[in-house]
């Protein structure tokens, strides 16, 4: 498995040039969106051939990562050492700002552990990325019945973890730039406790890629906003998990404050 980043940190070289076609797009999102969609359609072809394994998933994600850098994105990623030190499957929990983290988490996480997402049913049916997401055996929830979603994540999540597949969860109900601790549920902690695995907090600032008003996945990009991703130390869940949930929320909040995002 190819490892794209060397722990403990990665920072985009300040001299990284922008793609010529991006510059010719006059700071619009035209080239950014066109190339992004092209990468996804190339990945769909691999899926259709039955060859979209973990390496192919991570490679497609890394292609998007480099495309973002080529369109002015500047990444600052810390805590990669915590991924490198993992010796078993875990639950990852992250705040959720934009499409960006869904696209680039695979190239960061998959080289270290097998993983899949908990996703909304609408994403599994998405005309462009649906087949890609389904190929990774995700846990699909419907968001209209929290009790049923909890049962699904608990049963299917534990099954994935028992097979050595880590689970990535966005506990917020939707993508949003603002972080409201009360809206960040404890689903990840509950799953980690039930499966007796550790939980890894992830804090992200990805409003470089804004949510669109008409098509949420294809919003504008803000090249002056840096992209931050921080992986925390794996936590062991004790008791009812309230302290660990609080620690995760504090980890995200403190990082967002450091990044001037709140």
UniProtKB/TrEMBL annotation:
One of its GO terms (biological process) is phosphatidic acid biosynthetic process. Residues 90-207 form the Phospholipid/glycerol acyltransferase domain. The keyword DNA damage does not apply. This is 1-acyl-sn-glycerol-3-phosphate acyltransferase. Keywords: Acyltransferase, Transferase. It comes from Alkaliphilus peptidifermentans DSM 18978. GO terms for molecular function: 1-acylglycerol-3-phosphate O-acyltransferase activity. InterPro entries: Plipid/glycerol_acylTrfase.
């Amino acid at each position: 498995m190819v490892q794209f980043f060397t722990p403990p940190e990665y920072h985009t070289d300040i001299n990284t040039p922008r793609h010529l076609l991006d510059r010719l797009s006059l700071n619009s999102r035209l080239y950014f969106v066109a190339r992004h969609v092209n990468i996804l359609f190339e990945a769909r072809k691999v899926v259709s051939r039955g060859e979209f394994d973990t390496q192919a998933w991570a490679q497609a994600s890394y292609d998007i990562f480099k495309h973002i850098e080529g369109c002015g994105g500047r990444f600052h990623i810390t805590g990669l050492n915590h991924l490198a030190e993992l010796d078993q499957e875990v639950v990852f929990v992250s705040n959720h700002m934009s499409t960006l983290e869904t696209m680039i988490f695979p190239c960061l996480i998959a080289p270290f552990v097998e993983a899949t997402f908990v996703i909304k049913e609408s994403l599994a049916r998405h005309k462009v990325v649906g087949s890609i997401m389904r190929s990774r055996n995700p846990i699909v929830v419907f968001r209209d019945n929290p009790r049923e979603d909890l049962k699904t994540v608990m049963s299917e999540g534990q099954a994935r973890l028992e097979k050595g597949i880590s689970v990535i969860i966005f506990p917020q109900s939707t993508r949003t730039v603002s972080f409201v601790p009360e809206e960040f549920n404890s689903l990840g902690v509950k799953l980690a406790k039930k499966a007796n695995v550790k939980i890894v907090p992830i804090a992200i600032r990805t409003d470089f890629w804004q949510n669109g008003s008409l098509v949420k996945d294809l919003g504008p990009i803000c090249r002056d906003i840096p992209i931050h991703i921080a992986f925390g130390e794996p936590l062991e869940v004790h008791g009812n998990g309230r302290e660990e949930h609080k620690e995760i929320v504090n980890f995200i909040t403190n990082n967002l404050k450091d990044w001037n995002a709140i």
